[in-house]
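pasting deoxyribonuclease II for the record, 358 residues
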Amino acid sequence: MTAAAFWFGLSFLILIPDVLLWTPPISCRNEAGEPVDWFIVYKLPRYKMNESAGSGLDYMYLDPFSKNWELSQHLINMSQSAVGQTLEQLYKSYKSQENNTAYMMYNDAIPSGNYSTKLGHTKGILFLDRSQGFWLIHSIPRFPPFPEHGYGYPSTGRRNGQTAICVTYSYDQFPKIATQLLYYNPNVYNCSIPDIFHLALSNLQKICLGSSLPWILDKHLTKLKSEGQENFLHFAKSHFFVDDIYVAWIAQNLETHLLAESWQPEEQELPSNCSLPHHVFNVKKIKSPFHSFFYSRNDHSKWCVSWQYKDQWMCIGDLNRATQQAWRSGGFICSQNQNIYKAFRSLVYYYKSCNGTH
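structre below
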């Protein structure tokens, strides 16, 4: 053996452990399991106008590589779905009993148990290490399953439309996210925040343990930047902010009229509002680009878009435009990404202004 061959073989052996130990960074994942900076999923309702009942599991998908909605070939309950691919990272980490990752699952309607009205009207999942991670905000009650059960989708989530937004963040963004969650006061049903995270994410640890939380004000706004340098604004209101978040805060802060889509139970819905400088109009009917229409009453998602095309704001969150929601904590994440705005604005088929239907 020549000296060159010997040293090449030695260097190869030294490199093998690094190759074997390397794992892809924690991030939102597309349906191919590839990392993406963000994605949005819009699960279509089971019952649509002038159509026979569907599966209630079909969904539209949008990410930085999409210019408009794509209808997924997978169903939302499949592990091959974008949400399934993303959460699989958490489930694998749980099974391997790693202590170098942290996660938190919260939902006012947990997978098995009662519906909580005392804590935040919020639903989401965080999963991260000390490099980066994701925050997935969604509208699906009783989701996702506990880590020991693996990925699944609740049968109760089929009937109505649902939304989810996943954003990949570097580690330095998670202390800000933890502060926003203090205002949420979420109903945490499963979490793990190992010791290595306690110094930077002490607020997350307090929420996880259900210990006494620091005093907070009525609301908090923060800027977040994704791993891919996409800018977001995050609005978080506590139960001390007793008002409609759409009208009293988001529209006035963004200085734009909003078209708001949210689930509005009968006799609890708030009418379109023009009492302040920037108005909020209720979306009443939605048209997907895949030739289906559905009414707001069949949609459990919560989102809003600028009425005027020039403003291009789009927000996804936790709270409905309903009377009881004024007393609940929750929030919205907002973007001025042109493709996100156009995708959601195109869904508005008609809305109710303060003077009539358009």
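Residues 3-10, 16-20 have pLDDT under 50 and may be disordered.
The chain has one domain: 24-352.
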